[in-house]
Amino acid sequence: GQQVMQIPQYQHVQEGEDFTTYCNSSTTLSNIQWYKQRPGGHPVFLIQLVKSGEVKKQKRLTFQFGEAKKNSSLHITATQTTDVGTYFCAGPSSNTGKLIFGQGTTLQVKP
Amino acid sequence: NAGVTQTPKFQVLKTGQSMTLQCAQDMNHEYMSWYRQDPGMGLRLIHYSVGAGITDQGEVPNGYNVSRSTTEDFPLRLLSAAPSQTSVYFCASSYSVGSYEQYFGPGTRLTVT
Questions:
Q1: Residue A109's Cα: distance from chain center in Å?
Q2: pLDDT on residue A94
Q3: Could you give the 3-state DSSP secondary structure of residue A47?
Q4: In the predicted model, is pLDDT for residue B10 greater than 80?
Q5: Whose CA is closest to A85, among A27, A50, A46?
Q6: What are B's interface residues with A at a Cβ cutoff of 8 A?
Q7: Cβ atoms of residues A21 and A72 within 8 Å
Q8: Could you tell me the end-to-end alpha-carbon distance of chain B, in angstroms, rounded to an integer?
Q9: Does the beta-carbon distance from A101 to B102 stay under 8 Å?
Q10: Residue A103: CB partners within 8 Å, gap ≥ 6?
Q11: Residue B38's pLDDT band (boundaries 50, 70, 90)?
Q12: Is the dihedral of CA A89, A95, A97, A99 positive or negative?
């Protein structure tokens, strides 16, 4: 079946370093969503990308959607301790439309 | 708006017991879903509903039942709890399926002994 894979599973960085997580789908996606889950919290929607090659920025976060609409990335510039958490990508199934979540990338930031 | 609410926040069950996890939303969303979250497994879809009276199975439905009698409420029933159902359960809602932002509830942490 359709799969959404994320790498890496875990990342430890020193505060101030950059961070990137990658998301790959086995099929073309109509759109991709990104969520953040703080430790002990629930996933919170960050952004949705729809167009091929789309790039969106939210302060220090940069989101990209691949040209083939099968991959995406989230890049954080100069990480801060507030960036700690798990970042999930999700895309709709081509068959059912239901969101399929990647396994998530857990970011730890050392102050 | 309260958004998506879930009760209880924590629950401990013995093997074989049954219980219902409650979920409600006040955003008039048609689409509601239940996920379980286990370490390293991401969010896995248990059941979902595209409107009152309509439910369907997700990726991991075994051992769980749902019903949707109103737009607001979407309870999840564990029929006979097993240790493998120890997990964190999230309810979510959105305007429609797939291409819309999902709003998650705060979660229920369930332990089955």
A1: 17
A2: 83
A3: strand
A4: yes
A5: A46
A6: 33, 35, 40-45, 48, 58, 90, 92, 97-99, 101-107
A7: no
A8: 36
A9: no
A10: A5, A6, A9, B40, B41, B42
A11: very high
A12: negative
pLDDT at residue A93 in the model: 87
> What pLDDT is recorded for position A2?
82
For the segment B5-32, the average pLDDT, to the nearest whole number, is 97
**Beta strand extents in chain A (DSSP E only):** 4-7, 10-14, 19-25, 32-37, 44-49, 55-58, 61-65, 71-76, 85-92, 99-101, 105-110
Cα nearest neighbour of A90 on chain B: B98
Single-letter residue type at B95: Y
Indicate yes or no: CB of B41 within 8 angstroms of CB of A45: no
Q: Does residue A25 carry a pLDDT above 90? A: yes
**Cβ pair A5, A102 in contact under 8 A:** yes
Tokens of A34: 């990104």
| Distance, CA of B17 to CA of B15 (rounded, Å) | 6
Task: Flag if A103 and B104 touch (Cβ within 8 Å).
Answer: no
Across chain B, what does the average pLDDT equal?
95
A42:B42 CB<8 A: no
Amino acid code (one letter) for B75: P
Which of B74, B78, B71, B82 has its CA nearest to residue B104? B74
